[in-house]
From TrEMBL:
Annotated GO CC locations: synaptic vesicle membrane; terminal bouton
Gene name of this polypeptide: Slc18a1
Biased composition (Acidic residues): 508-520
Name this protein carries in UniProt: VMAT1 protein
Alphabetical list of Pfam families matching this protein: MFS_1
Organism taxonomic ancestry: Eukaryota, Metazoa, Chordata, Craniata, Vertebrata
UniProt xrefs under SUPFAM superfamilies: MFS general substrate transporter
Annotated region described as Disordered, given as residue ranges: 93-120, 493-520
């Protein structure tokens, strides 16, 4: 292709909202692959490096027991990770020394084999209980940091536009991915996860706001949001299975190095399409965050996003450990357990995104009820196959809520405030992050205090109880200053509210102004 042809292709691409949708799709995809790829890796990596490492050191420091010794050491061997052919035996010598069931068996106890965990289960129940809390805090660190950064990113997008924040998000995401690949301790993993939260905040707030600005029509915006959230769903879909398989068969660093390469491709795509050096502030003065936070309809929509995603956020750190303890699952199953939820989420976001402008409130209400019922069914599972139904229902229902609420947030700003979207999508992302911050951080504590089944009951009942509030979004009233624009329109009727002057802020090409003048 000649240089002139390349420039023409780039100019055409920058004028196309579809290519902007591709950029946002890829950014959300990579962010959420990194979000979930660590889910099956971190619990077993910490167990291998900390518990087994400490046990191996302790056992090598102990002197070898003699056959005549009245007692064996507290643990005569350390259980290998997946094979329990040798097990730690308290109060017994090796099996070869007890051919007739005699020897050092304590008096009053029958000469039988001591209680051991089923084949494939992990030792160290107390360590695993503590790990629930530690892994939950590590997973929550990303969302907590994102929670703090989001409002500032929303204000930044109103001042300089969406393109530079999108590229900043890519840069930070790349650094976080590389750090994950080479981190060998809990502290470094924690820092990498928190750094991911900063990058994710820039990418998600700027990306969703950019989509809302280039798709001003409610119907098109709902479809575009559904496709973009499909990138989120695909990332969740790929992340956990990809991480568990690569970790088991290739090594810990391998999935993160692959993601780092894909992040570089995304950065090149952003340079070509978005021109991140160009400052394009919002043409419309944004409504202050404090005003949006006092809007009860925006708060109801944000609450639905928060509570529905809190369920899967609580599952991420606790379900793999519960599977290790009760199902004795091998490493690869820990990530595959989330596959049904991811596939159904992908279906739900694409199916209900186009319905959001008509019956988003109904989709959200039904979705939250199904989330609660699915969570109540998770503890009834006895193996990975019986997790398919509850997890599939959970993913599909969360897809209903997310794909309905994201366009509704933009619609509420159009209807009741000024159509500048960076701030409202910062609030939406804050709600999403609150679910992923509160869920993992409190989930591990509740599991340790009450048990995994009661955790699922608690968050399931919470979702079912919140669902009726979505009825309030059925017909939200318009603000007085917007009534003139909307006087002849029914609630949730597809309509473009962005003035023509704002529409000419995009395309991003310099030739666009000249073309507009010639057209005039």
């Amino acid at each position: 292709m000649s240089p002139a042809g390349s420039q023409h292709w780039l100019a055409t691409g920058r004028a196309s909202p579809r290519l902007v949708l591709v950029v946002v799709f890829v950014a959300l995809l990579l962010d959420n692959i990194l979000l979930t790829v660590v889910v099956p890796i971190v619990p077993t990596f910490l167990y291998t490096t900390e518990y087994e490492g400490a046990s191996s050191s302790a056992s090598s420091a102990l002197p070898e027991p003699t056959p005549a010794a009245p007692r064996a050491p507290p643990f005569s061997s350390v259980l290998s990770y997946f094979d329990s052919t040798t097990v730690p035996v308290r109060g017994f010598t090796g099996a070869a020394e007890l051919p007739n069931g005699t020897g050092s068996s304590p008096p009053g106890h029958p000469p039988s084999t001591p209680q051991t965990p089923p084949r494939g289960c992990l030792e160290g129940g107390e360590f695993l209980a503590q790990e629930n809390t530690r892994v939950g805090l590590l997973f929550a660190s990303k969302a907590l940091v994102q929670l703090l950064v989001n409002p500032w990113v929303g204000l930044l997008t109103n001042r300089i536009g969406y393109h530079i924040p999108m590229f900043i998000g890519f840069t930070i995401m790349f650094l976080s991915t590389v750090m994950f690949a080479f981190s060998g301790t809990y502290t470094l993993l924690f820092i990498a996860r928190a750094l991911q939260g900063v990058g994710s905040s820039f990418s998600s707030v700027a990306g969703l706001g950019l989509l809302a600005s280039v798709y001003p029509d409610d119907s098109e915006r709902g479809s575009a949001m559904g496709i973009a959230l499909g990138g989120l769903a695909l990332g969740v879909l790929i992340g956990a299975p990809f991480g568990s398989i690569m970790y088991e068969f290739v090594g810990k660093a391998s999935p993160f190095l692959v993601l780092a390469f894909l992040a570089l491709v995304d950065g090149a795509l952003q340079l070509c399409i978005l021109q991140p050096s160009r400052i394009s502030p919002e043409s419309t003065k944004a409504t202050p965050v404090s005003t949006l936070l006092r809007d009860p309809y925006i708060l109801v929509a944000a609450g639905a996003l928060c509570f529905s995603n809190m369920g899967v956020a609580m599952l991420e750190p606790t379900l793999p450990i519960w599977m290790l303890q009760t199902m004795c699952s091998p490493q690869w199953q820990l990530g595959m357990a989330f596959l049904p939820a991811s596939i159904s989420y992908l279906i739900g976001t694409n199916l209900f995104g186009i319905l959001a402008n008509r019956m988003g409130w109904l989709c959200s209400m039904i979705g939250m009820a199904v989330v609660g019922i699915s969570l109540l069914c998770v503890p009834l599972a006895t193996n990975i196959y019986s997790l398919i139904g509850p997890n599939a229902g959970l993913g599909f229902a969360i897809g209903m809520v997310d794909s309905s609420m994201m366009p509704i947030m933009g619609y509420l700003v159009d209807l009741r405030h000024s159509p500048a979207y960076g701030t409202v999508y910062a609030i939406a992302d804050v709600a999403f992050c609150m679910g992923f911050a509160i869920g993992p951080s409190t989930g591990g504590v509740i599991v340790r205090a009450l048990g995994f089944p009661w955790l699922m009951v608690t968050v399931g009942v919470l979702n079912v109880a919140y669902a009726p509030l979505c009825w309030l979004l059925r017909s939200p009233p318009a603000a007085e200053e917007r009534m003139a624009i909307l006087s002849q329109e029914c609630p949730m009727q597809p309509k473009s509210y962005t003035p023509k002057e704002a529409l000419r802020e995009f395309p991003l090409t310099e030739e666009s102004d000249g073309e507009a003048e010639n057209a005039g």
